[in-house]
Hints:
This protein is mainly α.
Amino acid sequence: MPKRCSWCGSDPLYVSYHDTEWGIAVHDDRKLFEMLILEGAQAGLSWITVLRKRENYRQALHGFDWDYLAGLSDAAIEALMQNPGIIRNRLKIQSLVKNAKVAIALRREFGSLDHYFWGFVNHSPRVNFPSGIGDIPVRSEVSDALSKDLKKRGMNFVGSTIMYAFMQAVGMVDDHIVGCPAKKSGNQST
């Protein structure tokens, strides 16, 4: 019987995320931005913590509206700091403004976030073939380059490990273990 990647455990929310989202190609700018923000919020925490708060983030951040976030006032940032439904880390919340402004600039320069992010993998998912969780990398040369470019443009919470997790989440990289029912076929690797 096929075996699902072990990292998602048995929590129904985590299993659903693994089976229906992780590693599936995302080309919608709003969803790419959402995952970028959520991956940054996850820094230092477990992904299940962020998944449990995702709906609260969607509400608090107006559906991850980059125009809204780019214009957050100090009062709005303070209100977010009081919101128990999201991760109340001041640096992470303040980074929403910077990251939204950079996302707007990227869309202007590249036409879309999709074109920008997917350009790092030549617009084709990289498929790896890990035999177990220990074989799944936490970064790659591509995530290093993406991280470096985003930092140069002024984004925060976009280190290489965070960017690799983002790439996995949005399907730029398929790191499902060999035999996982969610595994795609292919022969590329990061």
